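Input:
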Amino acid sequence: MTDFSATKALFHMPEGVIYLDGNSLGPLPLSASERVARTVEAEWGEMLITGWNKAGWMARPTDLGDRIGRLIGAEKGTVVLGDTLSIKVYQALASALELNPDRRVVLSDSGNFPSDLYIAEGLLKSLGRGYTLKVVAPEEVEAAIDETIAVTMITEVDYRTGRKHDMARLTAKAHAKGAVAVWDLAHSAGAVEVDLAGVGADFAVGCTYKYLNGGPGAPAFIYVAPRHADSARPALSGWLGHDAPFAFELNYRPHRGIERMRVGTPPVIAMAALEAALDIWDMTTMADVRARSLELTDRFIAGVEATCPMLKLVTPRDHQTRGSQVSFAFPDGYAAMQALIARGVIGDFRAPDIMRFGFTPLYIGPQDVDAAVAIIAEVMNQRLWDRPEFKARSRVT
Amino acid sequence: MTDFSATKALFHMPEGVIYLDGNSLGPLPLSASERVARTVEAEWGEMLITGWNKAGWMARPTDLGDRIGRLIGAEKGTVVLGDTLSIKVYQALASALELNPDRRVVLSDSGNFPSDLYIAEGLLKSLGRGYTLKVVAPEEVEAAIDETIAVTMITEVDYRTGRKHDMARLTAKAHAKGAVAVWDLAHSAGAVEVDLAGVGADFAVGCTYKYLNGGPGAPAFIYVAPRHADSARPALSGWLGHDAPFAFELNYRPHRGIERMRVGTPPVIAMAALEAALDIWDMTTMADVRARSLELTDRFIAGVEATCPMLKLVTPRDHQTRGSQVSFAFPDGYAAMQALIARGVIGDFRAPDIMRFGFTPLYIGPQDVDAAVAIIAEVMNQRLWDRPEFKARSRVT
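Output:
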């Protein structure tokens, strides 16, 4: 059983803060400061260009990919780091479409993160040739998978509501109908148990700055099932995905396996922070994290519902369909979240009316939940949010 | 006149090293350590998610873009940071092609960096519809620009030879023939005087880890001419290029101007290092840097040619067509470079036989050149490279 008090001690948390926004940006692992400083000073500073070999920078995207792979049920050698999640969505979707060349429809749902939809829209417009994006309500996805669908592009856990799709079931349906399944694990990696190999996912993508605690703007990752890894064509065919990048050939020849999904020069300093964050993940298992997460979200839902009747739960009560966050709808949700933040409870707001709270067992425990509930009850019941200073909206929330 | 001894004092240089590889990875600016540590500890650690506003993370890609813009003759508000150079090449080329919808040929040259060619190859294959990539010898580019060319995609300075194209002349020819001009400034930004606005370039891209000293894997940048900025369609249409990213609309609406070229979450820690590096650029002008660079490369060429008859200069002698590096061909160039590195002179090798030396006035002066020449003469004339330990090739050079 994981010792979550031990993992909690490895993060920096500002005084007086209960941080329920690790689903947006994870906190600083204490060892990340030193790891980053070492990379900057002892590697970049002292090794200069030779750091690519000597310090292992060049191999880090696959080294760290394997460490993330363990958390999402991926086979060894199937995950590589790089770029941003939006770029990896593009790459996965473009490759997936080519594996199903006779179909023209990408299926997604309105609970997907908008950037995935925007990226698909942009890609399909570039491709022309009748490609279309079909967006249905999350509960209609399963029924919408039919023989016209080339690719299902679904985010497992809804960024707004915390609703979790049944990845195994939808993947099986996709395959039964001849579609390729692309999964976005933005709110899954480090949050819920994912078994990519087990469910037979074709492609998956995710980010590392949320539950994985890799730092602001940490790189994304992409998974390609072994059965596709040597045949998928990377539309973003950059030199580090080439079979022999340093031969500087004029024509592209993809590398074997997952390395072909590399594009350009990897972000060395950002990877140092992520590496430190992943050390903490070595102290636990996703089964333990998931059990603790459900305990925390159950406790939070019960506490808030017992004290704040004005907050309407939008996250599923059923464990099977709940991610690792709890969201409440409230018409003045933006102002209420600002008032909470002013009191040290940091969650976030998602338009139009969602107050979102993330639960991250590595550093949030039952006592934090109880303390947060008490503050939320006070802010809501005393209408502390109904003040002008909390109502002005900023661009970034 | 720039005080280059003052700028040199602001970099960390390992003992006993003469670093002539700043055209591959610039050295560590002393202030970058502290800037990165502050971003990690005082921003990520203390501000957590609120850093996006409070610490200005969200605006940094355009803030730093403007600072780079000054070095490449770009108008204010035309440059934004993000992703890697290969991704930005893809983005620029895809947008450029749509501005010229009736043509199907992309023109490039065999001196372009292979990743640009690979990226074009991948994009054109995705687009289908008869798109082709035409690759000619560098000296044939001008003659090859005709009414069939949709886009010229040219790297100004050849990564191998250091040959510099005439950007004004080729851009004018492209426009005269109705082509859109995309320039790659990988070996230009911080190396030579670039006047994007003056020459009327349509798009430009570049990286920040070479002459700009932003650190290993530092983000790339993209320039879009003001006349295209509100009409160019970003094929990589991510949420941070949306007109209202935090409205989470289901459909993509591009932001006005250069911000539409943003894709995903920006790399905050990497940008901190780059910001520190750009502070040093505020102490100089590109005219001063260029004058000094030519002085250094002239001195180096003269010194090596006077002492090492076996090294064949492949970099142009003519200032007009020379970048900020000097390359010599030598059949055992790989081994010779390893022998030089063992003696503290760090340059690099590019297949098949190029020994490459970069000159970076911010931290390399005439005395460094003279010291490097003396070591090169010794290594070459005493055949110190002709030893087994220098001949084994590593993958990364």
